[in-house]
Amino acid sequence: MAEKYDHSYDVVVAGTGAAAFAAAITAADAGLKVVMLESTERWGGSSSMSGGGLWLPNNPLMQRAGALDSREEALEYLEQTVGDAGPATSRARKEAFVDNVAPVVQLLERHGVRFARAADYPDYYPERLGGKIGRAIEVQPFDRKAIGDWWTTSRGQDGVPLPVKTDDFWLLSRAWSTPGGLARGAKVVFRSVGSAVRGRQGVGMGAALACSLLDVALRLGVTIWLSAPVTELLVDGGRVVGVRASRAGQDLRIEAKRGVVLGAGGFDHNREWREHYQGVDGVASSGASGNVGSVHEAAMAIGAAVDLMDDAWWGGSIPPVGGAAAGFLVSERSMPFSIIVDAAGARFANESESYVDLGHHMLEHSASVPGRYWMITDARHAHRYLRSYALDPKANKARVEEGIEFQAPTLGELARRLGIDPLALKETVDRFNGFARTGIDQDFGRGNSAYDRYYSDPLVRPNPNLGTLEKGPFTAVEIVPGDLGTKGGVLADEFARALREDGSVIEGLYAAGNVSASVMGHTYPGPGSTLGPATVFGYIAAKHLAGR
Fold first, then answer.
1. Which pLDDT value is given to residue 196?
2. Looking at residue 430, what DSSP letter applies?
3. Which of 198, 211, 278, 389 has the most beta carbons within 10 angstroms of its beta carbon?
4. What is the pTM of this model?
């Protein structure tokens, strides 16, 4: 049957993010001929624009450091946090995830990927049974010169094209307020200068992860095509045997002798789908612009089941303005001297909680109190902390011009500009200020968790997450339910095999990453809960098809 194909490979991988690269590298390591198909003109997807962390419990780096963790604790923690959110979160899939952490890390290390532990980063619910601190790992800063011209088409350029790591951002968030933050800022500067002096062009976080994986894939002989979207899955006798793809104006039929792995992104920027499944327009998504659900459609067209389509990797975000991308908030909302209020001027959640929880709370709260959300800060917040959304002067000006940011000398005047009852806002702030002085947030427990305190100011006492709002001028910036991408998609089993609605396996088709329904269900257990499972299930998919 080979004559009906324009090209023939053992494995066809849709996408070029972490899940796709993990699958391609694993298959190529097994001696298989692999092609990766990227639908846009730029490779790397949301993975290359991300923080680059992978949440991998009981990973080899923890074991080498003597950090206590175990299979049993990891699974207990997943049951405590994820629970049963449907077949995507089955016990078998949780076990497959945990059991394949070490093998995929060891495979990538064998091919030269250099990992580091984010040793201080806690799970997002560290106080629950099985919770830990230090389960996340990331790739060390990478010299992008090693991949040559491939950098010019990398989406990593939209991330942080500097040799920084997760713990750099943890401390840089308070670079002007604590000695540790100042010292880390100096370290990053020296690292960047040192890299340049040695003739290197270092990148970190998601860009380092994607570049490192691309480097391995290329050395293993993986073929990568850009601007080659998958338009159809080819089926013969109930089995997926290849794909139809468009490339350079040609309609190509590509054989996949062992299988097709769907490792593409979600449907972040498919406005129609976002409104249909989630009731939001998706304009505040921080996911890659090419994530429009086209691979979902191809899988659904041959009977693949989907799940968790109503959910995303939510988080409070600054709306996109002036051509700038949405500003996904992590540290800024957790720091002292700030609160988030609804349209009535009331707090509704712990501002320092995990971003997924805050996003869910915003969406749920909107049903009872519709209207806009605002993060309100006093002058000390701007003077003491790094605010990632405020680094671009053009975007700062655009937010003011478009009515997304306001400033006023008093809280009363700020309330009037926001259309909030000044007395209601005063009551909220007075109550919050009382909590800040005692160190106990009696309403939402802000600062109670080690996760809350990861992004905080240790010099603010008695609670490093709480600081009074007293010193003007006061600033309000609009917060909307944004996301890092959608988390619903093709339902897969513990071997990453795509399933039909009746639970039967679609032979020859696998799914991992945001194109699949996440094993993390409706929550986010720890830093890197998108990339960790994506990488592991990409590996699982390739191991299974290679063993056929």
1. 60
2. H
3. 211
4. 0.95
